[in-house]
Write a structure and sequence with these properties.
Strand order of the largest sheet: 2-1-3-4
CATH topology of the largest domain: Rossmann fold
Shape: globular
Number of helices: 9
Helix content: 25-40%
Protein name: Aspartate/glutamate racemase family protein
Organism: Sedimentitalea nanhaiensis
Structural class: alpha/beta
InterPro entries: Iso_Racemase_Enz_sf
Number of strands: 8
Strand content: 5-15%
CATH class of the largest domain: Alpha Beta
Number of domains: 2
Distance between the termini: 51 Å
Largest sheet: 4 strands, parallel
Radius of gyration: 18 Å
């Protein structure tokens, strides 16, 4: 899966380090090119299965990820990201190894979102696997200690299909899992002011989660749109004065 979403048209291309997966990629997922209004380059890291990255801490995979990131830069990527929020563990090493900006995880938004919220409100995290999301992952992303964490692990479809790398995904069941997990997180933490989606496969359900909970929802989609906008900011003509 080494592809681009189209010609750059002067826009900065973002390179995505992809896990080796076979589950369906739907619009809103990081791996679906139609998710992005800018050029995207994909490169698969062959030994990086969801099981190995999420449940086994991505042990032994740093060098393959660095090699793939460097290859994406050679192909024209102006920035690098990954297709799994658990790769926050590689943030510092990847950023040190490549000559372009790197954002490994949606979790890096949590501290910033907290600064945006009213007093007595805080952001919470929705993850695909709370039991695998360690303090090391959170610290690497700068997540404040004590941040509430909810998970889709108790659902019928989403965690099973994604971490099990299933060939089929029941999208409606996955949607229900995400909404139910978000509502449970909100019920457990009445001070919840926003939700940050850890998993890059949760993007398709962000709107449903926001509608159900009534709080802002931030995902890898919102993060990468901000990230890419800084790589090629728009130009304005200062001589055009509006009376």
């Amino acid at each position: 899966m080494n592809a681009t979403s189209g010609e750059t048209g002067g826009q900065a291309a973002v390179g995505v380090l992809m896990l080796k997966t076979r589950f369906p990629r739907i619009p809103g997922d990081i791996g679906h090119p139609a998710t992005w209004p800018f050029p995207v380059l994909y490169r698969v890291v062959n030994d990086a299965s969801p099981e190995r990255v999420v449940r086994q801490g991505a042990h032994g995979l740093l060098e393959p990820f660095i090699d793939a990131a460097l290859a994406l830069v050679q192909e024209g990527a102006w920035g690098i990201t990954t297709s799994c929020g658990f790769l926050t563990l590689f943030q510092d090493a990847l950023a040190a190894a490549v000559p372009v900006p790197v954002v490994t995880s949606s979790l890096m938004q949590v501290a910033m979102v907290n600064r945006l919220l009213p007093a007595q409100r805080r952001a919470g995290i929705l993850t695909i696997s709370a039991r695998s999301l360690t303090g090391a992952h959170l610290a690497a992303a700068g997540v404040p200690p004590g941040t509430p964490v909810g998970s889709t692990e108790g659902g019928a479809e989403f965690t099973r299909a994604i971490l099990g790398n299933a060939r089929k995904l029941d999208v409606e069941l996955a949607r229900r899992d995400n909404v139910a997990a978000a509502l449970a997180l909100q019920a457990a933490h009445p001070d919840l002011g926003a939700i940050v989606l850890e998993c890059t496969n949760m993007g398709p359900y962000a709107g449903d989660i926001a509608a159900a909970t009534g709080v802002p929802v931030y995902s890898i989609v919102s993060f990468l749109r901000w990230f890419q906008a800084g790589l090629t900011p728009p130009r304005f003509e200062p001589s055009l004065v509006v009376p």
